[in-house]
Amino acid sequence: MAAPEKLSDIVTSFLDVVHDRLITDTRGSVADYIPQLAGADPDLFGIALCGLNGHVYESGDTDVEFTIQSASKPFVYSLALDDRGLDAVHVRVGAEPSGEAFNSVKLEAGTGRPPNPMVNAGAIVTTSLVRGYSPEERFARILARLSAFAGRELHVDESVFASEQESGDRNRALAYLMRSAGSLTAPVAETLDTYFRQCSVLITARDIAVMGATLANGGVNPLTNERVTSAETCQHVMTIMATCGMYDYAGEWLLRAGLPAKSGVAGGLVASSPGEFGLGLFSPRLDTSGASVRGVVAAERLATRFGLHVLHRPLTLSAAEVTAADDALAAGLGAEQDAEAQQILQQNADDLSVWRLRGYIDFDGAERLLLNLDAWLAARPTDRESPAVIVLDLTEVTQLQSVAMWMLAALATWCRERGMRVIASDPQGRSLGVAGLSQTDGFDHAMRDAAATAGGNQNDG
């Protein structure tokens, strides 16, 4: 694995570590009940992560196309919610985990509803609730919604679509059963034709990372900056994903990974970390629940390593803020040490980058810091002999999420290997436990220490 050339490559390097450790995991087998899926290369494996600023980190086979299959269900559900409203949708389909396989023949007693929109029966009903004057218009709206989530125009794999039709007898049985029970009111043949087409849309791991990030970003695609759906709809969708998206593995998934997620039998898996990023994984070998073996393990390792469980959050969050100190200081905050700091910054502009972090710093906040530092280092004159120094003012940081702690540690290591320094000021005296990161108890002390280093007087602090 190559060493990261830029600070933002730190995230990619960690994805590479996870990818390389799991590439030898050959458990599971490709789906064979849909003939066209049986020929998939079982060794393909890709991991993609999309931050809320649109930066995508990739490792492995992230540009290989595969059909979206059941990973389409959350996004079509979002369209049905927007078309019909939450109450109208759930008159026809439930919201409870089934605890059974994705193609289970199980309807709610007394209502005839399928248990939730993530199992096949529920997804067939959800597809039927998308508005359209014809099956063609309905599918065109579904394809447009999937494309808007992915940030690019998507297409159908016609050979897989034909294979879905040929092998779809169980879904036909489900549809006719629901038709007789009253939960499916649209024509069976037309509804299944649309459903099979939506499952046959081609995507990549990169695409589903962007789709997951759009959900995590409250419905705004971070690549296109276009609003795809409302924040309220995203909340509803991610709730159902968290409780029902992984079928009969949903409970253990929520326990171990704690992220809203949805799998597909072509080997795709999409997960969302609300307010942080989207994760897209692809590996065709499946476990007994129909989810990618490597995808599940990779997502669980990332969630555990970075403390991403949706319930592992403080009760009160103050929004993350990452501000260049020259902007903050120029705003005239009035403190005497700020005036001194502004002078130091101006005198050492080529060697000194100062940032103020506020609130709850998670992946999104730490990523913004790394990307901004990349830009500063790229613009720094190449003939400078003095070392670059980075000062982080953590005075108003309420909490550092574990993923942010890891990213700061990686930042300090990356800089130390290149003869640079990272100094953090924290009057609260919190021990960050980050090797190579110098700490001071005040912003003014940090700035003076930085000025001494930037001026060529090396001080290891």
Structural commentary:
The protein is 44% helix and 14% strand. The chain has 461 residues and is an alpha/beta fold. It has a 5-stranded antiparallel beta sheet. A 5-stranded mixed beta sheet has the order 8-9-10-11-12, sandwiched between helices. Strands 3-4 form a two-stranded antiparallel ribbon. The longest helix has 17 residues. The protein is elongated and about 80 Å long. The relative contact order is 0.12. The C terminus is likely disordered.
Give the count of helical stretches.
17
Weakly predicted, low-confidence segments? 330-335, 457-461
Biggest beta sheet summary: 5 strands, antiparallel
Order of helices and strands: HEEEHHHHHHHEHHHEEEHEHHEHEHEEH
Helical content band: 40-55%
Protein structure class: alpha/beta
C-alpha Rg (nearest Å): 25 Å
**Overall geometry:** elongated
How many E strands? Answer: 12
Q: Largest sheet, order of strands side by side? A: 2-1-7-6-5
Quote the distance from N terminus to C terminus.
32 Å
Strand content: 5-15%
Short description, anyone?
The chain has 461 residues and is of the alpha/beta class. Helices cover 44% and strands 14% of the residues.
